[in-house]
Design a protein that fits this description.
37% of the residues lie in helices and 29% in strands. It is of the alpha+beta class. It folds into 2 domains: 161 residues, Aminopeptidase, CATH 3.40.630; 151 residues, 3-Layer(aba) Sandwich (Aminopeptidase), CATH 3.40.630.
Length: 336
């Protein structure tokens, strides 16, 4: 197996990269070439001021076996190798490798890293690995072989709704009181006497104006307004455009009397909806627009054969009211 360090994304074939993601241990939108390359372009929307890209590929007889998308940065007072996408805006990260190739690839990767500028880094600090990723036990085993210190901890919950096939079947899985509340709020909006409708953005010609509207709704929340620095806005815009170009954007709006009252930014990927962000106009709170739009999103997902709605990181109570079960992403450290 031949390992190589790449200092830019342009040295990879995007199609080859994405094919490996799709065959790999964690087929998530945050590992795709278009997402990670745009993330690196803004360093995560300005999260990292100083970072050195170290994309490491491994080939065997010309076949791309694995990719370790890494970067070197000072974090918690020591130089470490992190996964590209870390930490705040990429909900799931991992190595890009097939399950059968993981043990061989990871062992070779750590051997390669041990010989490659060993003085420059102290260890691995990897965030947002799915709790079921085979990388976790494999890295623990490899760390033990090398006498490294391995620690693993829950980083964030990622509540997920399992969808049984249609909206009524989904509602039957929700607590009775909550089921009544969902139906009541949907009915109240529909019977309000106002022109309430929702739609999914499909037209590329209107995409830029829809992105503007989405960001405007986001920033009505004080915390989200602080989050949306100029560079983070650029990152969000490019993520939305890229997802649209590659066919996995699912951006929806709820309108009241022709005005946008709520928005839901999701990714429609691998038969699941991934809930990335949202926004609500506080002027329409009497109609519970965020709640109503989420109900429509879940109804659409259930009736269109999606197996799950992943709320992704965050432990907000409303997610569990909608029937989410708790899952987690992990932080793992392997220190020399």
């Amino acid at each position: 197996m031949k390992f190589q360090v790449h200092t830019d994304f342009e040295s990879f074939d995007p199609n080859e990269w994405n094919a490996l993601v799709e065959a790999g241990i964690s087929d998530v939108p945050f590992l795709r070439y278009e997402y990670l390359s745009s993330w690196w372009g803004t360093r995560g929307g300005g999260e990292w001021k100083q970072a050195e890209l170290m994309l490491i590929s491994a080939r065997e007889d010309g076949r791309l076996v694995g990719i370790a998308p890494l970067f070197l940065a000072e974090y918690d007072g020591r130089p470490v190798l992190l996964l590209v996408g870390s930490i705040e805006i990429s909900d799931y990260l991992d190595l890009i490798v097939r399950a059968d190739d993981l043990p061989h690839f990871l062992s070779g990767l750590l051997d390669f890293l041990a010989d490659f500028r060993p003085e420059a880094w102290r260890g691995l600090d990897w965030y947002n690995l799915p709790e079921g990723s085979p990388t976790l036990p494999a890295l623990q085993a490899e760390s033990a072989k090398r006498g490294w210190t391995y620690t693993e901890a829950i980083y964030h919950p990622t509540p997920t709704v399992v969808l049984p096939g249609n909206f009524e079947a989904y509602l039957a899985t929700v607590d009775k009181k909550q089921r009544h509340e969902i139906r009541r709020k949907m009915r109240r909006a529909e019977e309000s006497g106002r022109n309430v409708r929702w739609y999914i953005v499909r037209d590329e010609a209107t995409l830029e104006s829809e992105i503007d509207a989405f960001l405007a709704l986001m920033e009505m929340d004080e915390n989200k307004a602080k989050f949306l620095s100029d560079v983070m806005r650029s990152q969000m815009r490019e993520s939305i455009r890229s997802a649209f170009r590659h066919g996995w954007l699912w951006l929806a709006f709820l309108e009241v009397d022709g005005q946008k009252a709520a928005a839901a930014l999701n990714f429609d990927y691998r038969n699941r909806l991934w809930g990335y962000n949202s926004g609500v106009d506080v002027r329409f709170m009497e109609l519970s627009p965020g709640w109503v739009l989420l109900a429509y999103v879940l109804q659409w997902a259930a009736e269109n054969g999606r197996s799950e709605f992943d709320f992704m990181r965050g432990d907000e109570e409303y997610k569990y009211r909608f029937g989410a079960v708790k899952r987690h992403v992990m932080r793992v450290q392997a220190m020399k």
